[in-house]
Every structure is written in structure tokens, then in C-alpha cells.
Amino acid sequence: MKVEAISLEKKYHGAVEHWQRHNFKDYETLLDQWEKYFPTDERFCLCAKLELGTSDTIAIGEHKGEKKRLEPEQLSEEEAAHLLAIIKAQASTEFGSIQQHAGTLERADDDQDRFWVLRVMAEELRHGYQMLHLLLSKDWSHVSRGVSGEQMVEEILSMQTGNHVLDAFNLDYDSFIDNITFAAIVDRVGKYQLTMQRICAYRPMADSMPPMLREEAFHLAAGVIPMRRWAQRAAQGDPFITMTAIQHAINKWVPRALEMFGDERGGETNVKFGFKDLKNREAQDQYIEEVQKMIRDINLRFIRARFPAYAPEQADAALAELERARGTHHGVRREDLLRTPDRRFFRRKGEPAFSMVGVDGEPFTDAEEYLRYLSRHLNEGYVASRDMRNYAEALRGVAAGTLAVKDAIMKMPKLKRVGGTCPCSKGVRWVMDGSAADQAASA
Amino acid sequence: MPGTETGTRIRPLDELDIDAIVRIDERISGIYRPEIWEQRVGFYLRRDPGASQVAEAGGKVVGFMLGDLRAGEFGLEEPSGWIERFGIDPDQRGKDLGRQMFAAMVAHFQAGGARSVRTLVDRKDEGVAGFLRALGLSPSPLEALEMRLDAKPTESR
């Protein structure tokens, strides 16, 4: 594979670096320690990367077989507006996840785990940079409703946890368990989106995907591998790591991850325009299957650690027995293992929005009972959050018949902060060389 | 993404293959060592994602081949593909899966500019050495040297 590396115009490159100094303070630590944790790996590059030599033919949709579009003006107005929204949403997720990771990064109990997450954050920064390149390198003015490229960048870099485009990026992390679980569960949706967009009819978007996907492979490993090790520690009786704590994090993130695919009944437009090759439900079905496999593997890791004399087949049999009979196996209960939450569990968007369904698919009819159930299946820090309070208010309204589901959906997420501001410059983040603000931020 | 085929297929390694690799290794070596494979899979997924390959039969991973594209080591400036570890479930041998994984890795290495594939093998392990020879690898002018540190050198030069 041949890749072209591109830097943004100095003004915008500086804006991203300025954002990094406020939102990703450990970036320099990562670069300083790179050789220790990632010896012989290529040094990190804050740049856009475009894969060369990809297909120039549209693979799907109503323009299938035609040449891929190279300029936004070559797309119809509707197509260009749709793609612009996708790019902006993608940019929001990349920068948003860094802000989330930064909140609890220092609580990692293992340096390797911490530096793996730091690398994930750096690569998310590059992915955000990539999306800014897509916004700035071409003229979108015919569909941007008068918003200039500069203003779009300003808008994206002003977002904070609470006013990002997608709900999954508006939740604070409660512990380092969230850093890891998020990488395993939410980054997995990212992998699906990037994979689907590899065929995008707009070639600069398609060419952006392969380098991002290669980096995303490690992001998933940075989630799954620590989760596997934690399952081992939990099985061996480590008092600080429990399967319950991991399950509660899974319960927090899987519903938001499922909603990142969009409404289960939608996605046809993306396929019609040739931007993605799967509709929402198709992609979500595959995703759920993958999460189920991940969780089964982690459970097997737990069982092998609890029963070291077991052969693989004995561990398989024990797990199958626990899943089927939901009883106990030499002291291990079904509840001691991880489960993939039912796809309708704790949903606030999409087809099952505000239905009351438990982790294992059990139905509830009373909103208060369901909220008490949620409080037992989510971690304490999250239960006491504003996000949960907003959800509970909306759910009560839906259950009482005073709020239509579609209106309840529109209330999510409730913005905590309207329009972020840069701590040192009150919203103006264009950086002049040697400005006082810049020096203050880097001090 | 999950496969749906019932036949065999070769695809790049991902993080959900760890369990299958641990099992294959355990079948071959008789040792359960998940930590080693978690570390190695993590290494290759960050080092050169897309290089390492697995073989699936009936939707189940039955073989793996791990390696990466490197340059600048041991004075070898030109990029070379390196094969480090591989294994095939004993029940699935003889189906050409090793050759297919190797071909996929070679394609990846060539796309990255490699003009050679390298590995190290214990000559006493005739099974592995024979497999590598059958793939087309042959003795290299480069020589692997070592010195035991638990015994005195017999002579100094």
C-alpha cells in the first residue's frame, strides 16, 4: 500500500495543536516515551494520510460503475450535504473520544494499558485531523449554508463532552474501566463505519479510510486485551477487578454503540448514494455478532483462569452449561460471567427507543421499576449523572403517555454545555505564532 | 466483520482471533499460554496491521501466520517481510492453508515494497524447516549467530 501524507495549512495545523494542548495534555509524554512502549514502530505523525491506488469506480448505489467523485461539486446537492454531515459527525467523534479518555487516563493501574490508550488518543487526533483535511481541502460552500471551512473547524474544535454529535461521545468516563471498554465496544463501531466507507463514492473519503482502519485495529486490541487480562484477574480473586464492574461498563456503552449505527430502519440513503455498503440494521447485526464473540472469549478466559486444570473442551462445556441452565458450575454463577446486553436494553434512540427491556431481554412495564433495575446494572458513578437524570425524566414521560417517543428521542442528549470555549481564548482558537495565549497554553 | 462462508478463507488477523490462536498453540504444544499470544497479537496489530493472516475453515480460525514488514534492522535497509510465528490446527493440515496464508502475507509485503521474505528456523525442527522450504524459502547468506550466556566462551577472538 502506498500512502500520501498531507499537512493542513499552518493556521489549521496550529489550531489542532492548540486544541491538543488543552484537551490532550499527555501527548508530549507519549511522544517522549514512544521508544519505550512502541520500540521500532514508526513515529507518530500528526497528518492526513490518503491511500493511493484505490478503486476509482463507484461500487454500489444508483451511480454504481461510474467514476468516483473527486470534488464536492460533482455530487448532487443532496449527496454533498449528506456527506458533509457524515464528515462533521466523524470529526466530532474523533476529538470527542480524546476528551473522554483524558478524564480518567491517569487512573490506569498498569503503565502499558495507559500508554496503549495514549497511543489510541494520538491516533484519534490524527483521524480528527483527517476529517478536517476533508472539510478544508475542497469547497463545500454550496451545501454548507454559508458556513465557511474555518467556521466548521471552529465549531468542531469547540465541542466538549456534552455537545458532540453522537450520544456515545457525550458521556463522561467514570473510571479507567470505561477507557478500556469504550475501546473494545465503541471503537468497534468506528471500525464498521470506516470499513463501510472504504467504498465511498467520494474518493477522498474512501482514500482516507484504509490508513484509519489500520490504526483502528490496534484500538480494538487496546480494549480487548486488557479486558481479557482483567477477566483472568477477576477469576483469580483480585479484589479490585470484578466481572460485575466490567459488565456495568458494557451495559453503559453497548446501547450507545448500537445507536451509532443510526436507526435500525434506516441507512438506505447511504447505500443509494454509494457512501456505505451496508444499511444500518445489517451493520448492527454483524456488530452484535462480533461483540458476542468477544464476550464469549473473555468468559472462557475467566473459566480457564478459575479452573486451570481444565482442557479447552471442558471450559467450553462449562460455559455452555452456564449459559443454558443459568445455574452454577463449581461456584461460578452465570451472573459471574459477562453477557452481551439485549439490543433493546437501555435504548434511547432507534427502533427500540424507550422500550423497557433488561440485559437478558426481560420486559418491564413500570418505569420506576425499570429505573431501579438500571441502577443495579450500571455503575454508581454513572447512575448519579445528569445523563441518567435526563433519561429518567424522558422515560417517565413516555411511560405516562405525556411524551411521545419521537419527542423523547429529540430530548437526547440534553446539552450540558452550549458552545464550548477555549479556556485561554474565549472561543477564538486561531493561533498566531508566539501569541500570549499560545504560550500560556503550552506553559 | 464476521464471516458467513462455510468453506475456507484467508483474512488478516484481528484482536478476536486471540482465543483461536491460543487453542491452536495449545493443541500443538500442550501448553496454555494466553498472555504470550495476547502480547504478540497486540504487537502485530499495532506494528503492521494487515500483514498477519489467519485461515478459517467453516467459519472457525484453524491457522495463523504472524509477521511484519521491517526495514533498518541488522543493517538491512531495504524493507523485508518477516515471518515470525505460525501454526495450523493438526486436524486441518494438508489443506494448503499454510501456503495460502503465506501467499497473502507475501502480497502484503510486496505492496509495502519488500523484495524478500525472511525468517529464522531451527534446523533440527524438520517439520517446520521442511514446510518453509516447500514455500520457497532457502538458506540465506545471512547467518544467525548466538552465544550461550550460561557457559564460558571457549576462545576469545
Structure keywords:
heterodimer; A: about 450 residues; mainly alpha; Ribonucleotide Reductase, subunit A; 2 domains; two-stranded antiparallel sheet; two-stranded antiparallel ribbon; 16 helices; 4 strands; disordered C terminus; B: about 160 residues; alpha+beta; Aminopeptidase; 5 strands; about 30% helix
Structural account:
Chain A folds into 2 domains: 2-300, Orthogonal Bundle (Ribonucleotide Reductase, subunit A), CATH 1.10.620; 344-421, no CATH class. Chain A is 56% helix and 3% strand. Chain A has 16 helices and 4 strands. Residues 415-419 and 432-443 of chain A have low confidence and may be disordered. Chain B has 157 residues and is α+β, with helices and mostly antiparallel strands. The relative contact order of chain B is 0.14. Chain A binds chain B through residues 1-2, 38, 40-41, 116, 119, 192, 195, 213-215, 217-218, 220-222, 224-225, 228-229, 232, 286, 289-290, 293-294, 297, 300-301, 304, 312, and chain B through 1-2, 14-16, 18-19, 23, 26, 32, 34-35, 38, 41-42, 45-47, 49-50, 70, 73, 111-112. Chain A: One of its GO terms (molecular function) is oxidoreductase activity. Chain A: Pfam families: PaaA_PaaC.
Any chance you could write out the topology, listing elements then pairs?
The complex is a heterodimer of chains A (443) and B (157).
Chain A lengths: L1 E5 L3 H14 L3 H11 L10 E5 L24 H28 L6 H26 L12 H10 L17 H22 L5 H33 L7 H17 L8 H5 L7 H27 L5 H14 L2 E2 L2 E2 L33 H11 L2 H4 L2 H15 L4 H6 L25 H7 L1
Antiparallel strand pairs in A: 1-2, 3-4
Helix pairs in contact in A: 3-4, 4-7, 6-7, 6-8, 7-10, 10-11
Chain B lengths: L7 E5 L5 H12 L4 H14 L5 E5 L2 E11 L9 E9 L8 H15 L5 E2 L7 H10 L22
Parallel strand pairs in B: 4-5
Antiparallel strand pairs in B: 1-2, 2-3, 3-4
Please provide a brief summary of the model:
The complex is a heterodimer of chains A (443) and B (157). By secondary structure, chain A is mainly alpha-helical.
